[in-house]
Amino acid sequence: MYPTTTNRAVWPLLALIFAVCLLTAGQWARAQSVPQEIPRVSAENLGEGLSLRGQWRFRPGDDVNWADPALEDKHWQTLRVPERWPMSGYPEYGHMGWYRLTLGVDPALHGTRLLEEVAVKMGKVLSAYELYAGGELIGSVGRLPPLNEVDYDRERVFSIPQSAVAADGRLVLALRVWGGEAELVEAWGAGAISGSYVLGYHRDLLIDAVLAEVPGLILAVLTFFFGCYHLYLYWRNRSLETFFWFGLMACNIAIYGVMLTQWKYATDLTFLTMKKIEFGAVYLFPAVAIQMIWSLLRLPIKRWLRAYQLTFVLAALLVVAIPGHTVHYLTLEWWQLLCLPSMVLAPWVLFRETRAGNAEARTVLLGTLIFVCTALNDMLIDLVPLESPRLAPLGFLAVLVSMMVSLANRFTTMYTALETEVAERTAELSEANRQLARVARVDHLTGLLNRRGFTEEAEGEIRRTFRSGKPFCVVLADVDNFKQFNDQYGHVCGDHVLKRTAALLQDRLREVDRVARWGGEEFILLLPETDTEGAAVVAEKLREAVEQNLVAFDDQRLSITMTFGIAAFRKGESLDACIARADTALYHGKENGRNKVMIGNYKGLSLVN
């Protein structure tokens, strides 16, 4: 058992969630109590978009003659649009029903081009429908019986022909709706359920429809790339287990987010396939979220919690594997009820860990609370039903942002600790080597530092870089075609060339710079407080000096050239890695004709000369 104080502290959290639910329900009740009147159609309100939400005439049953604009529908009942049918539907009529709405068109619009551009935007209708204007069929979504093809997520814009407007200015819209299978109607209701129902100009409605869907697409794409990036980080370092679960969760949310937008219809997938993807993603989310939170908090997952997770995984597999839509209707409510314990458990554990001083729990707690409130709102939409926008995408976004901040804090802490550890290990290594370096720090031929001496100086410069943040560069220099001096004039000549070259390099560097013989005919330079561009300038001057100074030997004047490779030290890397990059640059300089300065950078190699 946990301390009593922690249990008492959970009650304010539950009270907050309950208050949000009451507020949402109150807003819904107020929205239901305000009747909406449909004004007459004019050029002005068409430009602004004329809302068709409100009371429509409604009659259960099916008769294509009910599309006739001359039909008298005053005796029909009224039904608000959007609003679901009764949960039992109208089984005696095969779950078929008609909506009718009569509008008066301003006489000033008659015979004008503006009337030719009029269109209507239809929201979401469970489960399929046909739309008539002036008795003419102008469009449909899904297929009515006997074909029975559901498509209850699609929002469409249909052009209204000018001929649909009667001579007396009346425009009658008739909506023929099939509620769907009995299991669907009993579980979710039917009819015009949500979305915007607007009369306006065709071009404006299309633009508004696209713009309304852009934020959802952008959010889904960004979430997907964030997820892939964290999966990549895990692939590079398998110890970052939390990054794996965050990446998996982000990709899961991104897929679900796309399935909530109209962009999904840009694919060639069938509606059933899209629904399988949507339900599979959302059913799997609790299992991944629990794994993510427990991994973030470094808490062990007990057997009962693991079994709870596997229940969601099994539900996701079943809803994808079982053919048809019926499994969606029958399992959604049970899945929502199954989620309720996690909506209490996760905030409670996060709150407990926050009280214990876990900074990461504090960050994630806020995002989790927002998600719980939005999830409860969406559950009420399905269970009450509630006329309210679905807020799940905002809840997912809150979870992602909070966990991204938490992971960023953890990564920063790990990186800082790694930098500190590198600096400490470097200091220990330098101290151990200093005793040996005192014995042999100088190359006996050139009088320069040898490899050990240079390494000690470079390690000291690395420590200064960590303290000051100022850059430094390493330059590898190699005498071109050195073997010909030994072969043609003997090793005495080769030694003389090395000593003369060492003197030239030493004389033209600053006091703070260091030059050493790296091995054979190869020299290495350390340039403190120097960036890549500055190092390139120094190396180019040295290259010109070596090229212009002939070496006298046995009454002969020998010409010498050198090739230089430059690498700027990157904070956090080893000295060997930096030198390796400089060596790669030097190698490419040799391949490109020698007597050159090459710069190694992140994207490749840059040729200075």
Topology:
Layout: H1 4-33, H2 43-48, E1 50-51, E2 54-60, E3 77-81, E4 96-104, H3 113-116, E5 118-122, E6 124-126, E7 128-133, E8 136-141, E9 156-159, E10 170-178, H4 182-188, E11 191-194, E12 198-201, H5 202-236, H6 241-259, H7 271-296, H8 303-321, H9 326-355, H10 359-383, H11 392-439, H12 451-468, E13 472-479, H13 483-489, H14 491-507, E14 514-519, E15 522-528, H15 532-548, E16 551-553, E17 556-558, E18 562-568, H16 575-591, E19 597-600, E20 605-607
Parallel strand pairs: 18-19
Antiparallel strand pairs: 1-12, 2-3, 2-4, 4-10, 5-9, 5-12, 6-11, 7-8, 7-10, 13-15, 13-18, 14-15, 16-17, 19-20
Helix pairs in contact: 1-9, 1-10, 4-9, 5-6, 6-7, 6-11, 7-8, 7-9, 8-9, 9-10, 10-11, 11-12, 13-14
EC number: 2.7.7.65
Transmembrane segments: 214-235, 242-259, 279-297, 304-322, 334-351, 363-384, 390-408
Catalytic activity: 2 GTP = 3',3'-c-di-GMP + 2 diphosphate
Discrete helix count: 16
The percentage of residues in β strands lies in 15-25%
How helical, in percent, are the residues? 40-55%
Oligomer: single chain
Global geometry:
elongated
Please count the beta strands (DSSP E, at least 2 residues each): 20
Give the integer mean of the pLDDT values: 84
Q: What is the rounded distance between the termini?
A: 73 Å
Please give the CATH architecture of the largest domain.
Answer: Up-down Bundle
CATH topology of the largest domain: Rhopdopsin 7-helix transmembrane proteins
Can you offer a commentary on this structure?
The chain is α+β, with helices and mostly antiparallel strands. The chain folds into three domains: about 55-195, Sandwich (Jelly Rolls); about 215-415, Rhopdopsin 7-helix transmembrane proteins (Up-down Bundle), CATH 1.20.1070; about 450-605, Alpha-Beta Plaits (2-Layer Sandwich), CATH 3.30.70.270. About 55% of the residues lie in helices and about 15% in strands. It has 16 helices and 20 strands. It has helices at about 5-35, 45-50, 115, 180-190, 200-235, 240-260, 270-295, 305-320, 325-355, 360-385, 390-440, 450-470, 485-490, 490-505, 530-550, 575-590; strands at about 50, 55-60, 75-80, 95-105, 120, 125, 130-135, 135-140, 155-160, 170-180, 190-195, 200, 470-480, 515-520, 520-530, 550-555, 555-560, 560-570, 595-600, 605. The strands form five sheets. A six-stranded antiparallel beta sheet has the order 3-2-4-10-7-8, with no helix packed on it. Strands 14-15-13-18-19-20 form a six-stranded mixed beta sheet, with helices on both faces. Helix 13 (about 485-490) crosses helix 14 (about 490-505). About 35% of the residues are buried.
